Amino acid sequence: MAEHWRRTAVLQAAKAAVAAVLAWLIAAEWWGLPQPFLAPYAAVFLVEATVYRSLFSALQQVGAVVLGVVLAALAIQVLPWQTVALGLVVLVGLLVGRWRGFGASGVWVGVTALLLVSYGSADDSMLMLDRVGETVLGAAIGVAINALVFPPVYTRGTEAATKALAAELADVLCDIAATLRESSVPRSTPSWVARARNTEQLLRRAEEASGWGTESVRFNARSGSGGKVANAARWHDLMVLLRAAWPHVRELTEALDHAVRDDDAYRYPSEEVRERLAALLEVTARLSRARAEGEKLSPLVEEGREAMNALERDLVSGEGLNLTIGLAGVLLPAKKTFEQFAV
Hints:
Elements: H1 2-30, H2 38-45, H3 51-78, H4 82-96, H5 107-118, H6 125-148, H7 155-180, H8 190-216, H9 228-259, H10 271-293, H11 298-317, H12 321-342
Helix pairs in contact: 1-2, 1-6, 2-6, 3-4, 3-5, 3-6, 4-5, 7-8, 7-9, 7-10, 8-9, 9-12, 10-11, 10-12, 11-12
């Protein structure tokens, strides 16, 4: 995966270099513009990480530059003193550029106005139009090269990160089930709690990878082949499911950790009940893996519902308060975890 990202970074850098050279040649040689620095600048910064981001950033950047040009022209007309106009356009440009619609390109409202006023060209209407034209040219070239020349796709990272999260949740559930089947009562369960909490790091990676994967197939010509759109959607859906299940797994580990403490209000369930609870958790773990591998779910869902129904009968007809309290403390998070995977 790291190798894929390195290759993509090198390819994007090469595309940006080509876009800059092409924009400069067209603006300087073909159009004959004097010092067309905005054309290669726009081209470079619009070879973005995704095609969607290139298109969106192009609108932001062109809008910011056009507003900067207008600001510089107005300032030099109202204030004939260059030094005063310089300070004014920076002040107003940076404040206006903070509008969230400009995104990261907002800073270029003030910077563009600053450059034009400091070069002494803000009162030249033709030169101002040239600046707008070269910006549009560079933006168009950057977007076109990014969209047409090996547009980047990041669905591979989404699959790997989501599978890792599904596997870790399944491993935690299996470890809990194995401990529940032991005849002795554990003194504490810190490893369960710690692993469930640490799984949040894998969840964050899966969320980030899913975001990149989903965005990378939007307006991407390559995504039409090989089912990349459907693939990205599948892993995104699974990531959402795992994100919803993770809090219940963490709650389950914390409930069991409380149940093994002598001074806690909960009680550790009986051996017979623990066996059925372990069976439910194992089925849930298998469902997690089956979803990641695209396997059939219905037999596992049926098996899990049978185990859950048996546990609910234990809760209603349990012999003694200890069994009922001990089971009630862990059944709800276990049930919620199973139901997330059984949907």
